[in-house]
Amino acid sequence: MLLQVENLHVAYGAIRALRGISFQIEQGEVVTLIGANGAGKSTTLRTISGLLRSTEGDVLYRGESLVRTPAERIVSKGICHVPEGRRIFGRLTVQENLEMGAYTRSDSKEISESMERVFASFPRLKERLGQRGGTLSGGEQQMLAMGRGLMSRPALLLLDEPSMGLAPILVEEIFEIIRRINAEGTSILLVEQNAAMALSVAHRGYVLETGSVVLAGTAAELARDPQVQAAYLGH
Amino acid sequence: MLGRWLRRLSGDWRWSLVTLGGILVLVGYLLPVFPVRISSAVTRFSDGSEIVNEFPVLVYEQHFAQAKTSPTVDLFAVDVATEAISGFSASGYGWLATVLGTQELIRHVSFVLCLLLPLVAGLLLAASVVVASRSRSVPSQGWVPAAAQLGALSLLGLCLAWAHQVDFSSDLMTAGQGALAPGLGFWVALAGSVAIFGGAVMLRNTTHKQLTTWWALVLAVGMTAWLLTKVRPYPFLEIWRFVSDGILVTLRLVATSFGLILLVSLLGGLGRISRNPVIYGVSSLYVELIRGIPLLVQLLFIWFALPQVFDMLGELLLRISPSLDRQGQALVDLRLNPYTAAVLGLTVCYGAYGSEIFRAGISSIHSGQMEAARSLGMSYVQAMRHIVLPQAVRVILPPVGNEFVALLKDSSLVSVLAVSDLTRRGREYMARTFLSFDTWIMVALCYLVLTLFSSRMVELIESKTSFER
User: Fold this and answer.
1) What SS3 string covers A56-84?
2) Domain boundaries, chain A
3) Domain residue limits, chain B
4) The domain at B243-465 falls in which architecture?
5) CA distance B360 to chain A (A)
6) Are A103 and B378 within 8 A, CB to CB?
């Protein structure tokens, strides 16, 4: 068991965003959380990566609790969060953005190896190496955000809405890359509104509604489920 | 050579005019600029006494020496001996060479500047035309405001250089009986300056840049103050000599407290965005309380009431426990010196305003930047230090610059604390001589030069660090 979330409650002041969700991720899996706006998907990711504090419940990573660990220590334990809306450093170049991704590491030789691996996944980033992050297109910025996340060599990558605001052809490209990153051994927790694409790359999935898990199963099961089809796949 | 340049530029005759002006200045400086000079002056008074001034190169401080005599005697006459200068020494270059070679260069530094301004204008414009003729085009638009300003400076410099000859003394001017009239070279250079200025002003439609800069205002106010000391050395030069040490005190006070204010503002601003309720509460209370009390009242409190607070605290310590008598006695004996009290008062007050500026600046940086930094493994402090603050500084800079200018003005309030700043020195001079109008004009001009200069600097720094977001 790589990550286990148990009965997690999170509140923004008086608003209860998560009302006791539980799920787990095995080593090497792609797990997706799907659901409508405000279901609590991003809140879940932000709580796992330590940006938010839970009011109740536990997050276990390789059997160790993370709920009291500060965000920066969680990164060095091997969980990397690629936040929604990309959040790249617009004034820094592509290369500098990637170097920032390796902030927790000090092994300069292996860092350059990691960068080569990122370029293998995202050849476009290599072409744009000296360009400022803010001048990249939306798809390139998403690639940069993911590449930057990979620079910390995570065992578990948390991706928040990687397809947001991208053209369909770019969405396909991004998901192809997600598949490849997973094939190289990184487990992925994927949060998506584009349920069809998410279920096509995921092994298993959970459906969230107003802060609770309402449905769980393998990706194939969920894709066949009439409720999911009606609500998220538009059939 | 000259013809070729002018033909190149003939696409626009206005540029030709500017170029011609530059060349006229350079040529005019070869001709006699000031062919006669005053070598000595004897000032006679009604009681038979006289002051003899020998001028090795230029007249200086003649008028002041006359005005400083006892008010019971009248100025009777001024006799002037003049000396003709021949050849190269009478030209602009010759004058510069002579003055630069004198021992008392520091006394003539303003004359040297006045003579150099037109020369620099001429040289720069000639050089720009050489560059332009190489690249086969009219100088770029950016040169238009520069040429206009160079022309104006050149005009100003020449006129003031002539005034230097007589040290603004109407007595000397009369006694010199026209011997001080400028030579042909002066008029040629003056015509050149007018041509530069006029040509550049006519070119103003070709550029979107503004011809005037507010630096000219700083210069004008500075010149006014300086002219006052020249035209009426008594009392203005005396006031200047009396209050000038106050300027240094004011500047030192402002610099010291501004450094501390930045520190307090940073801490206060971080406190105001803290999630820790105690830190947030303390910093908010500080900001709200201090902003509601006038600076003058705060200064008076620190100077007059704080010693009493120390006394009470010290006595309390002495009463509580004999083992604390050393600390207690130290508190009773503690007295702030006026300067420290002033720095403390300004820092506490402006730190509160600064805290709000820093808070607003930090909040203006998109929360995603902090989020991104945190999810890359930076701690809160590291992310603040390396990601958020460097971006916030550029937002904070303009209002902090305004605070600096405001601080400079409000520092006059510390004159109530027996700190001999500019205002206090002005009051002391007025109390001594009852020359209220002259004193406060001079003090106001000193403050104006300081504030105008610093707000221009702030503007400059702003434009260098501004960026698109």
Assistant:
1) EEEEEECCEECCCCCHHHHHHHCEEEECC
2) 1-78+173-235, 81-153
3) 2-212, 243-465
4) Orthogonal Bundle (1.10)
5) 21
6) yes
Phi and psi of A33, rounded to 5°?
-110, 120
B145 DSSP β-pair partners: none
In A77-122, the DSSP E strands lie at: 79-82
Q: Does A72 touch chain B (CB under 8 A)?
A: yes
Strand bridging mode A204-209 / A212-218: antiparallel
On the CB side of B197, how many CA atoms lie within 13 Å of its CA?
Answer: 17
For residue B159, the distance in angstroms to the closest alpha carbon of chain A comes to 50
Residue pairs between chains A and B whose CB atoms are closer than 8 Å? 51
- pTM of the complete model beyond 0.80: no
Which of B368, B369, B374 shows the shortest C-beta gap to A71?
B374
Whether A75 sits inside 8 A of B372 (CB atoms) is no
pLDDT tens for each residue of chain B, 469 residues long:
566 655 655 567 788 888 888 889 999 999 988 888 888 888 888 887 888 888 877 776 665 565 666 667 777 777 888 888 888 888 889 888 888 888 777 777 778 888 888 888 888 887 776 776 666 666 667 778 888 888 888 888 888 888 777 666 666 767 766 667 788 999 999 999 999 888 888 888 777 767 666 777 888 888 888 878 776 777 888 899 899 899 999 999 999 999 999 999 999 999 999 989 999 999 999 999 999 999 999 999 999 999 889 888 888 888 887 777 777 788 778 888 999 999 999 999 999 999 999 999 999 988 888 888 888 888 899 999 998 998 899 889 989 999 999 999 999 999 999 899 999 999 999 998 888 899 999 999 999 999 999 998 888 888 887 765 4
Interface with A, mutate which of B275, B376, B393 (most A CBs under 10 A): B376
Scanning every residue of chain A, which has its alpha carbon at the shortest distance from the alpha carbon of B387? A89
* Spatial separation of the C-alpha atoms in residues B282 and B349, rounded to whole Å: 15
Interface contact A87-B371, CB threshold 8 A: yes
Q: Enumerate the residues of chain A whose CB falls inside 8 A of the CB of residue B379.
A: 70-72
Distance from the Cα of B341 to chain A's closest Cα (Å) equals 43
ipTM of the complex: 0.74
Q: Which two tokens stand for residue B196?
A: 């530069």
By CB neighbour count within 10 A (0-12 exposed, 13-18 middle, 19+ buried), where does B221 fall?
buried
**CATH number for the A1-78+173-235 domain, one of 3.40.50.300, 3.30.70.360, 2.60.320.10, 3.90.950.20?**
3.40.50.300
With CB atoms and an 8 Å threshold, state whether B375 touches A83.
Answer: yes
User: If contacts are CB pairs under 8 Å, which of residues 29-68 in chain A contact chain B?
Assistant: 49-51
Q: Tell me the C-alpha distance between A91 and A94, whole Å.
A: 9
Inter-chain CB proximity A80 and B379 less than 8 Å: no
Pseudo-torsion of CA B310, B316, B322, B328, nearest 10°? 0
Q: Is A104 on the interface with B (CB under 8 A)?
A: yes
Which position has the token pair 């937002």?
A: B395
Contacts of residue B255, Cβ cutoff 8 Å, sequence gap at least 6: none
The 10 Å Cβ neighbour count of residue B131 is: 12
* Facing residue for A87 by CB, picked from B372, B379, B467: B372
Q: What is the pLDDT of residues A164-196, one digit of tens each?
A: 888 888 899 999 999 999 998 899 999 988 888
Number of neighbours of residue B33 by Cβ within 10 angstroms: 28
